[in-house]
Design a protein that fits this description.
The structure is a homodimer of 455-residue chains. Chain A has 455 residues and is of the alpha/beta class. Chain A contains 23 helices and seven strands. Chain A folds into three domains: 124 residues, Alpha Horseshoe (MgtE N-terminal fold); 113 residues, CBS-domain, CATH 3.10.580.10; 173 residues, Tetracycline Repressor, domain 2 (Orthogonal Bundle), CATH 1.10.357.20. In chain A, the strands form two sheets. A four-stranded mixed β-sheet of chain A has the order 1-2-3-4. In chain A, strand 6 and strand 7 form a beta hairpin.
Chain lengths: 455, 455
């Protein structure tokens, strides 16, 4: 009996031991005895040389059985280490879905060297599949499916499945499809309906007619919406001529959405590209972060130049220098809350980029409430500290006003950026804080100039 | 022929028209003609009264057929509007998975009123299921499954499926299970193996033996890890006595992870609770945001008090007031990049909270590189602006040093918070900016004090 947390350390150690025997049949026997998930896990924890040696000893067919159980990143790093011919041998044994995944992750040159080494028809097909953009139905679909023609009976299909079970066992056969002579999609067969129906029925009697389907160019956003509204495992994909070309599984859509939302979080925090792991090379990590920071520092200098304009006021009321960073920081915080809600709602399709007025209405009311509360707080502290009500007034009113500005713009900035074709997750933060800094510094210092004699 | 973007506006309009006839059979006929996904979509866009009226006219059984196609939030708002008896009638027709989802989302009182109105055995079962924490295998599992006893043949199962097809059609039958007399899990049957195997085989010959399984209390993190390593549609869940109690689908795990990672993004931006939609009441939205802002403003005042301590220095070199907000903001940005990477790696299980030294090593090297670059940039600007190399030195060195502090602490703070049992996504930002502000202000102003005669 095994459960998911057991056996891990144990199997790794033993796999290394068995590997050192260099005896292929002994290694195979060892792997065969492991419970299914543990094989891939054991492989993932070997170092690169040990992995390469293991694959060499096992041969391509058995190696693929292992590799298909690993996730994308892991397999790519194994493939990258291999000599071309070994990589091609292994690659040819993989299901198309995984081939595409690997080609997308490999660097351009490695990918084209592998494609060129394949049979021309196969290479052509892969080039076609890889040309679908990644986050569309075409890019997410499984390009293999079971399709039967319209004249067939339930019995014919069951016999076919039994005869070709070996071949089909790589496919995701939760659904089968009924197609016309020209390949157009006519209906969907659920596997369980095939099992449960009398054998003499025509497929066209038990199929779901006028099935839901998506075009190959349907974007991820629409696919997410689709699977949110219907509880299907997958949906067939058709080309512009209504011909069946593949199946998009709900799980593939969820995974892609998940990947996107992780990217949003990292981009929002200034990680360009939306992906950073500490295993990446130092220079790549630092230069990506720097590219975003460099833009930020320029914007910061621009915003701070407002302070330079009011140097006379500051000289006369040096105490304001204590409050400038507080107002800058608090406005940034208030604004970023609104930014985050807008980015989230945009990514879930709950708000459209043109709904500026609705968002403005919703955010400005929060801006007023929170501005008043925060303004009273900071104004009160300023008053109590220096015993000067005018200082409290300048600081409190400025923070209140700037909170309203920050929250309102915070809600709107991601919508503007989306309309302008820019990435809201990456650009909203710097843009927002520049606006709020300029306004905040201007509010405090111009208000202070007006009341200068009393400060 | 329908595709996912068409027909929407059209169907809604017509559904409202048909609803106004108040003729149940006409409404049913209309709904029957809609393609599958469009029914639920049309229902979701009706207003509350129209939905209630529609459900009343359709009766519970037909209504459930519609409601099961809607997502959680939508169904709950429909159920909340109903009189108790109507709600119970509809509830009883739903699959357990959706019943649990609704009970979890309903407010406590509504949920217990519905449970109390059910048959005692059913109520007991639901109370037991709902007692599993939401983000564990028990909370995520489908509590219905197909289980067969060990003596049966493939033929027996196929006959059983054919006979009880009607009943099973609500189940997620990608897998069936073989159990002992006491209910312990012995093996897994894949539906396609049942189809492809000779009928006279024993189930125990075609089942996957010693199957992977998880305990009901397995947390989401481990489930995610599990499905990352093995490419299964689902995994059986057993209780402490190894008895089968349900099935967790990979898709349910992905959805839960997705929900968590959206929460992380919003909490990181200061949305307490990790959930805000603009449809929520104004007061709830503003007070949640305020609770986080209030803590922030207190921390900001603490940090800015460092500036107050150096008022004399500032008075003599007022130009520093321009650079204080820049250093505060840039250090916050650099630090937050590191925070985001740590939060992401924590949530993916790529870093453990105790790996402080590894993270410190990885981050401090970035801190040095980026610190030097940013310090040269800002120092250069300061020098060019005032023509004073000492001003450039003070500002540049301070930013460089503080970038190193910010990036190093940024990487560590989420790990500390996780070890202390706090939520890194919510608390890292305020904690980090307080540290970086205090250090940054201290660096600039104490360094400036030392070089005061030259500024």
């Amino acid at each position: 009996m095994t459960d998911i947390s057991s056996n891990n350390a144990h199997s790794v150690e033993t796999l290394i031991d068995v590997l050192q025997t260099e005896d292929p049949s002994r290694i195979r026997a060892f792997l065969a005895k492991l419970p299914p998930g543990d094989e891939a896990r054991a492989l993932a924890t070997l170092d690169k040389e040990q992995q390469a040696r293991l694959i060499e000893l096992l041969g391509p067919e058995k190696s693929v059985e292992l590799l298909v159980k690993m996730t994308g990143r892991g397999v790519v790093s194994v493939i990258e280490q291999m000599p071309l011919q070994q990589a091609v041998d292994i690659f040819e044994e993989m299901p198309s879905r995984q081939q595409l995944d690997i080609l997308r992750r490999l660097k351009g040159k490695d990918a084209s060297r592998i494609i060129e080494a394949l049979a021309p028809a196969r290479a052509e097909r892969l080039r076609e599949l890889i040309s679908y953009p990644e986050d569309t139905a075409g890019g997410l679909m499984i390009p293999e499916y079971l399709a039967f023609s319209r004249g067939m009976l339930v019995r014919d299909v069951l016999d076919d499945l039994r005869d070709y079970g070996e071949v089909y066992s790589d496919y995701a056969i939760q659904y089968a499809y009924v197609v016309s002579e020209g390949g157009e999609l006519l209906g969907v067969l659920r596997l369980r309906d095939l099992l449960l129906a009398p054998k003499s029925k025509l497929l066209t009697d038990i199929m779901i007619k006028e099935p839901q389907k998506v075009r190959a160019d349907t974007p991820l956003k629409d696919l997410k919406e689709f699977f949110k509204q219907v509880n299907y495992l997958g949906v067939p994909v058709v080309d512009t001529r209504e011909r069946l070309v593949g199946v998009v599984l709900a799980s593939a859509v969820r995974e892609a959405v998940n990947r996107r939302s992780n990217q949003i979080f990292l981009q929002f925090s200034g990680i360009v590209g939306g992906e950073e792991f500490r295993t990446m090379p130092l220079f790549k990590r630092s230069s990506r972060r720097l590219s975003w920071l460099s833009i930020n520092i320029v914007l910061n200098i621009v915003a701070a130049s407002v302070i330079a304009l009011y140097q006379d006021t500051l000289e006369k009321a040096i105490v304001l220098a204590v409050f400038l960073p507080i107002i800058s920081d608090m406005s940034g915080c208030s604004g970023n809350q609104a930014v985050a809600v807008s980015i989230r709602e945009l990514s879930l399709g709950l708000v459209r980029p043109k709904e500026l007025l609705r968002v403005l209405g919703k955010e400005s009311s929060i801006g007023i409430i929170n501005g008043v509360v925060l303004g009273l707080l900071l104004g009160g502290v300023a008053f109590l500290w220096k015993g000067n009500p005018y200082l409290g007034l300048v600081v409190g009113v400025s923070l209140a006003a700037n909170t309203l500005v920050a929250v309102s713009f915070g809600g709107l900035v991601p919508l503007f950026l989306r309309r302008a074709g820019a990435d809201p997750a990456l650009a909203s933060g710097p843009l927002l804080t520049t606006i709020t800094d300029v306004c905040g510094f201007f509010f405090v210092l111009s208000f202070a100039s007006a009341l200068l004699s009393r400060l």
